[in-house]
Specification:
Helix content is 67%, strand content 6%. By secondary structure, the protein is mainly alpha-helical. A two-stranded antiparallel sheet has the order 1-2. Bound molecules: zinc ion (ZN).
């Protein structure tokens, strides 16, 4: 295992070179790999809010959101071999996406 520390080119954190790819730490790799997904989710969430009260549509959009989350999980798993770590990272990205949604809603 390599003990050489390098600086992540995105967040500047010092990480073992063995954990980096393209000069990015694992956190940043995950963030980049799912970067387009939260935006998709945000759109679906807003759609769901608009349709609230019309049950059929809400259910359908709920399924679409679940699919988007699945895709995020698959991308993260392809980067992270450790199952538990992958789950933690997915949870964090989902939280971040949720936070983004509230930010957009408040505008
Ligand atoms: Zn980083």
């Amino acid at each position: 295992m390599s003990s050489i520390l390098i600086f992540c080119r995105d967040c500047g954190k010092q990480v073992p070179s063995g954990e980096t790819r393209d000069g990015r730490c694992l956190d940043c790799q995950v963030r980049v790999s799912v970067a387009d997904v939260p935006e998709k989710k945000t759109r679906l969430w807003r759609k769901r809010e608009r349709y609230r009260g019309r049950q059929a549509n809400v259910e359908q959009i709920g399924r679409q959101i679940a699919r988007v989350e699945d895709r995020m999980g698959q991308r993260i798993k392809s980067l992270v071999s450790n199952e538990r770590q992958a789950v933690d990272l997915l949870r964090r990205e989902l939280e971040a996406a949720r936070g983004q949604r509230y930010t957009i809603k408040g505008v």
